[in-house]
Amino acid sequence: MTSLQNFAQLLVLGVARGSVYSLIALGYTMVYGVLRLINFAHGDVYMVGAFIAYFAISSWHLPFLPALLISMAGCGVLGVVIERLAYRPLRRQPRLAALITAIGVSLLLEYGGQLVFGASPRKFPSEVLTATSLGALRFLSGALERSMGLMIAPEQLVVIFSAVVLMVALRLFVSRTKVGKAMQAVAQDRDTASLMGIPVDNIITLTFFIGSALAAAAGVLVALQEPQIDPIMGLWPGVRAFVAAVVGGIGNIQGAMLGGLIMGVAEYLVVGYISSAYREAIAFGILILVLLVRPTGLTGKGLIEKV
Hints:
Layout: H1 3-35, H2 42-58, H3 64-87, H4 95-117, E1 122-123, H5 135-148, H6 154-176, H7 178-188, H8 190-195, H9 200-225, E2 228-229, H10 235-248, H11 253-273, H12 281-293
Antiparallel strand pairs: 1-2
Helix pairs in contact: 1-6, 1-7, 1-9, 1-10, 1-11, 2-3, 2-4, 2-9, 2-10, 3-9, 6-7, 6-9, 7-9, 10-11, 10-12
């Protein structure tokens, strides 16, 4: 493999991983946009999504797509429950209270997951894809290998395609629908949006549902590539996705997508050209560098704080 082919290979792998980070980062940025809250439990919702799909496939013998949709719906409901029980009672309290609560919810999901699912890793049934129609993806994978020397598994193509579809669907929903425009209004000024008749509580609930559903999709897609799941699997992906949201400009949907792709590509380039020992450090290195140059992130705008 030539140096150019090696670079292209790392780039494709980075895009596949970065698209997953983007899906998780979207949940962070959407919640921050409407509540100015960092939902640190978001990475653990990602873990719950992987386990829901695991049981849907292994116990209920469902195909991949229904299992993915059930996982997204289940985690969407979980996100709504978290918002109703943990965050809504603290909405008018100092932000530190909600932040500490978010950390508590994260620990509850991690240790509750160990209690319910067991601490031992489980093998995700990634072979479920062999039962679906993957002929076109296998043909495309083979064509890329023959023509460009790129070794891309059909699972990675599924990840990229699914992530792109979900991100485009979210972008169209937010920009083209009345509910999406209501989300933008709540993010811009919650009190004014309420005076204009927008049901702020319902919009916030819907935001948690969508963000948690996207995190679940990310968990399932990662489990296809790395078929070993456990109750703390969401820790580092959640941290990287949070960094991606901040780098891109937290509160900005396009920024979350961009930040996720930057994180994924940078991670694989560092592993390929330097050392895998710096895989975790690169995210924080990029974060520090970006914040030194643009404190609001690559696409972020300054906010006026009310005091």
